[in-house]
Design a protein that fits this description.
The chain is mostly helical. It has one domain (about 5-75). Helix content is about 60%, strand content about 0%. The protein contains 2 helices and no strands. α1 packs antiparallel against α2 (about 35-55). It is elongated and about 45 Å long. The mean pLDDT is about 85.
Amino acid sequence: MDQDRLALLKKIGEARFTCVELNLYLDTHPDDMAARADFNSYSDKLQTLLDTYTGTYGPLMNFGQCTLDAGSWVRSPWPWETV
């Protein structure tokens, strides 16, 4: 897998992790507006990264995050295949 793709996947993982952690925090601190603003910011960043990945390499998931043809994710390389 090329370095640009790996770097993008790493950024997606980091943003997704941050969103999950902030979401868990907000479950117990729903009135923390700074945390909510951070969550919204990282959610937007995650969506931008996912859109970039999908536009360049194809969908990461088989449903829920991609407007491309259903099943098109099958035609993209699997993680263990080289590009």
